[in-house]
Amino acid sequence: MSSFDFLADPKILAVAENAAERVRARVAAGVRGEELLGACLDDIRATGYHTLTVPSALGGLGGSVLDACIAQERLSAALGSAGLAANMHLTYIGSTLVSGLWPPARLEAFLRGVVEQGWLINNLQAEAKMGSPARGGLPATTATRVEGGWRVDGRKRWSTAAPFLTHYAVGATVRSPGVPEHLGHFLVTAGAPGVSIDPTWHALTMRESASHDVVFEGVFVPDGDALYVSATGETFGRNLDQAPWHGLTFSATYLGIAVEARDWAVRFAAMRAPTNLGSPIGDLPAVRAKIGEMEALLLTARRMIFDTGRDWVEAKADRREVAAQVPLVKHVATNAAVRITDLALRVAGAVGLSEEHPLERCFRDVRSALIHPPLDDVALEGAARRALADAANEGT
Length: 396
Fold this sequence. Notes:
By secondary structure, the chain is α+β, with helices and mostly antiparallel strands. The chain contains 10 helices and 8 strands. It has helices at 10-28, 33-47, 65-78, 80-99, 104-117, 244-271, 285-314, 319-348, 358-365, 376-394; strands at residues 121-124, 142-146, 149-159, 167-176, 179-189, 195-198, 212-222, 226-228. Strands 1, 2, 3, 4, 5, 6, 7 and 8 form an 8-stranded mixed β-sheet that branches. The longest helix is centred in the last third of the chain and has 30 residues, at 285-314.
């Protein structure tokens, strides 16, 4: 339990608890790899957790970004890969509801499918040569105009939960007569002719996440599923309302992994009593110092994530200022999560390296936080620019 649970909708918190308990049961049963993620996603859908960010008017739980953060911390503590897969889906829905990217009727129909048929989606943008889509540039994946729709060809990397999704949101370079090339967005149904999964995910971290490549070869996308194509070649821009839907929820997801590591390490320290010591290792000042540092890091990260989320939801501050803070929240919180797992491993020693304990998995999984945008250098550069601009303005 967290002292911040009071911030969440009780109904949503109960659903998150149920989903986390089911995922823990799957992990305890000894299922491994992609099979584990598939089973966990089935359990998540059975609880209705996948509807967390779908409006209640459409049958969803109607959760805010703050609700999503608190729930994601809870779920991700049970299994990081399950939390990551769920967050890709929930965050894309939450962001899409305020982005204006989807035609309203198409979005409503899709969200009803999420509620009634258990649809899952991920936003596939990353490519091998393009690097992070946040850095700009057009993808190598193309969408070429054909009769009645578009032909999509290309390959997307790091497609979390690829084998278990029902739909993909795909970014592609639009090629249409008389229109400058630009980034378009298309909805592709998993399993459509020409869609295949290349099992490329063999990574240190998030091993169960099935973040494989998805390949598109001559995939036909009807006009109704062309979510955004510009007649003048303009790329669809992000708006202010989308700001918290990536940095905050991903921070909470990775912090949940760190919470699991902290909880396990503290229990270990309270119970582990080597014969040469005659009392639990938690009595040692060096161990207590590490636990104290974990507590400080956890409190700081939670405060930053949840207070920022509450500021956004309750509009207690200028949203432009809150949006500018989100990259720094992600930077501080995810680095805190990495440090917490490091400290937890130092408390446990060699015991923590064993796969029979969750700490080994947590230690690996949380490292993925470092490569999720915004990257540390981007967050710090942005903060520095704003600080210098403010100082310059004050001096004039």
